Amino acid sequence: MIGGGKKGGWGRAHKKLRDVRSDFLHKLSRAYVDRYDVVAVGGLRIVKTYYRVRSVR
């Protein structure tokens, strides 16, 4: 039973889902580290770039 109750219910289901997602992300990041020599992480500001290009026209 997933519903409410004294022993967890939804909380247990959410914890399991969180753990599955975390495990997947860990395996994915580990695969990147094993496959590539350098891994760079950065942010993209696509919205500002889009508006800048439109204003040039």
Describe this structure in words.
The protein has one domain. The chain has 2 helices and no strands. With 57 residues, the chain is mainly alpha-helical. The relative contact order is 0.07. It has helices at 10-35, 46-56.
Tally of extended strands?
Answer: 0
| Structural domain count | 1
Categorize the overall geometry: flat
Number of helices: 2
Question: What percent strand?
Answer: under 5%
> Biggest sheet, open or closed, and with what strands and sense?
none
* SS class: mainly alpha
- The topology string of helices and strands comes to HH
Question: Over the alpha carbons, how many angstroms does the gyration radius reach?
Answer: 21 Å
Low-confidence regions: none
What helical percentage do the residues reach?
A: 55-70%
Rounded mean pLDDT score: 79
> Whole-Å distance between the termini?
59 Å
Features:
57 residues; mainly alpha
Can you give me a brief rundown of this structure?
With 57 residues, the protein is mainly alpha-helical. Helix content is 65%, strand content 0%.
SSE order and pairing:
Layout lengths: L9 H26 L10 H11 L1
Organism: Methanohalarchaeum thermophilum
Protein name: IS605 OrfB-like transposable element containing RNAse H-like and Zn finger domain
